[in-house]
Amino acid sequence: MWDDDISGHVWREEAAKRSPLAQDAEALGRLIEQDQDPAEVSYYEAFADPDAQALDDAQRSYAGQYLRRLRRLRERDRRAKTGPEA
Q: Which residues contact 20 (CB under 8 A, 6 or more apart)?
């Protein structure tokens, strides 16, 4: 029915399921309070970047909207196949 690249579907499903980048930044912030591991600090800086968080929020929102649209279309198709109920 929907001719689309399977990798796009996989990406949307994964993007819709993942936790917000801000939550990951908070967790990394707690880690670097205990020890100043350079790798953790660099990850924290990347995750705490407002532009990165805005992009992540937009991607997750897009993916969620797309998946909801697919569910509505499938439901509409299913109802159309069963016909009007009396």
A: 53, 56, 57, 60
Structure tokens at 14: 């994964």
What lies within 8 Å, CB to CB, of 47 at 6+ separation is 21, 22, 24, 25, 28, 53
Q: What does the block give as tokens for 16?
A: 């819709």
CA–CA separation, 63 vs 66, rounded Å?
Answer: 5
Average of per-residue pLDDT values in the chain: 86
Which residues, given as ranges, of the chain have pLDDT below 50?
1, 86
Sort 28 into a burial class: Cβ within 10 Å, 0-12 / 13-18 / 19+.
buried
Both tokens assigned to 36? 């100043």
Which residue's entry shows tokens 């970047």?
49
